[in-house]
């Protein structure tokens, strides 16, 4: 067992997978007996990264004062505040609710109603907020964070489509429960690579929709719409989905909304396969409009999702590198960017702020890794 000790207030939490070497350790990493593995102030080396991975340490803290200033700038935006608040207040609650239900078969599953209403209320208070694919993903909360992410985006799409309040609530509840069946897989879903699954494992994974539906079908407080979302969120308009190979005319609008939201979050944040860039995933979903996904839902989806989420590092056509700090609601492909360097990322050189909705000759060429 490993423990970490505090040292500095100017630190940044970073995934071990993102370490490149040269970072300064801000928290000691020690064994439970007090044996320090990597002391505070040490510079990360390649061999340290390998050792951390061998010890199954997923995150460490590094000193990064300059980058913290950028983080503060990003976190000050409305979108970031709403995203952070929803995740902080809802993930733990939905995790506790579902775990108590699956372990004890209690009637506490109704707790998802409070979570759903909270998500809806937070969004209604900021009606023009855009969905930013979250950068917050705790490994041991990934399934629950996924459910909250899907629910948040689904509510935004439902509002864009001007659905009735009752339908919006049903969508929020159904999307929070859509992966309930994952809790009953005969193996740890969080620890497998889906691309390396054998046919038997893939068959078991696909059963999660039927398992989840079986768990909720007799819950009288739960609407039929929410139950259908649990059962059918992997159905596709052309009949290629599962479990019943339904075609578009037999899939509800509410389920179609959740299907797209699930596709986005899984493609970007899956622990089991390559994480794709957000704008590439959006392009892929758009290319499948009218084939796998409903045209009307895709159009609403494109209007509410930030193509370049806040905190994304981008390369402009001017060869400048910057970070997205704010969104333009009416022009989602043209956010506001803080320039951080030319050709190379330099967090010590904060340059001009570029509103791409105003400077039309400047555009984002690509996103870059941090």
Mind explaining what this structure looks like?
With 370 residues, the chain is α+β, with helices and mostly antiparallel strands. The protein folds into three domains: 2-63, Molybdopterin biosynthesis moea protein, domain 2 (Alpha-Beta Complex); 72-304, Hypothetical protein af1432 (Orthogonal Bundle), CATH 1.10.3210.10; 313-368, no CATH class. The chain contains twelve helices and ten strands. Strands 9-8-7-6-10 form a five-stranded antiparallel beta sheet, with helices on one face. Strands 1-3-4 form a three-stranded antiparallel beta sheet, with no helix packed on it. The model is unreliable at 1-9, 65-76 and 135-141 (pLDDT under 50). Pfam families: HD. This is HD-GYP domain-containing protein. Residues 121-317 form the HD-GYP domain. InterPro entries: HD/PDEase_dom, HD_domain, HD_GYP_dom.
Entry summary:
The protein is an alpha+beta fold and 370 residues long.
Average predicted confidence as pLDDT: 82
Structural class: alpha+beta
Instruction: Work out the strand percent.
Output: 5-15%
According to CATH, the fold-level topology of the largest domain is Hypothetical protein af1432
- Corresponding CATH superfamily of the largest domain: Hypothetical protein af1432
Shape: globular
Q: Give the termini distance in whole angstroms.
A: 30 Å
Order of the strands making up the biggest sheet: 9-8-7-6-10
Number of domains in the coordinates? Answer: 3
Rg estimate, integer Å: 22 Å
Per DSSP E runs of 2 or more residues, the count of β-strands stands at 10
């Amino acid at each position: 067992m490993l423990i970490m000790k505090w040292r500095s207030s100017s630190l940044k939490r970073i995934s071990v997978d993102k370490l490149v070497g040269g970072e300064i350790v801000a928290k000691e990493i020690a064994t439970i007996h007090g044996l320090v593995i990597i002391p505070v102030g040490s510079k990360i080396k390649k061999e340290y990264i390998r050792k951390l991975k061998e010890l199954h340490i997923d995150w460490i803290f590094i000193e990064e004062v300059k980058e913290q200033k950028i983080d503060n700038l990003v976190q000050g935006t409305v979108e970031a505040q709403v995203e952070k608040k929803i995740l902080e207040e809802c993930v733990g609650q939905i995790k506790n609710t579902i775990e108590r239900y699956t372990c004890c078969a209690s009637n506490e599953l109704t707790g998802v109603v409070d979570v759903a209403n909270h998500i809806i209320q937070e969004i209604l208070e900021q009606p023009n907020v855009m969905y930013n694919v979250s950068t917050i993903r705790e490994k041991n909360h990934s399934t629950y964070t996924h459910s909250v992410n899907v629910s948040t985006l689904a509510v935004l799409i439902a509002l864009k489509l001007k659905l009735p309040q009752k339908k919006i609530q049903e969508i929020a509840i159904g999307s929070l429960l859509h992966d309930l069946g994952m809790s009953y897989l005969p193996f740890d879903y969080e620890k497998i690579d889906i691309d390396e699954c054998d046919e038997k494992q893939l068959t078991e994974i696909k059963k999660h929709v039927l398992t989840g539906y079986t768990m909720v079908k007799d819950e009288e407080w739960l609407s039929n719409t929410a139950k259908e979302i649990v059962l059918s969120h992997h159905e596709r308009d052309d009949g290629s989905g599962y479990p019943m190979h339904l075609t578009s005319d037999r899939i509800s609008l509410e389920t179609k909304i959740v299907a797209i939201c699930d596709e986005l979050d899984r493609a970007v944040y899956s622990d089991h396969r390559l994480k794709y860039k957000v704008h590439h995933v959006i392009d892929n979903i758009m290319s499948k409009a009218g084939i796998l996904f409903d045209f009307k839902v895709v159009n609403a989806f494109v209007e509410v999702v930030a193509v370049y989420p806040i905190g994304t590092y981008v390369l402009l056509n001017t060869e400048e590198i910057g970070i997205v700090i704010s969104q333009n609601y009416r022009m989602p492909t043209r956010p506001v960017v803080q320039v951080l360097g030319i050709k190379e990322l330099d967090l010590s050189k904060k340059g001009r702020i570029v509103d791409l909705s105003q400077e039309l000759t400047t555009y984002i060429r690509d996103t870059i890794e941090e």
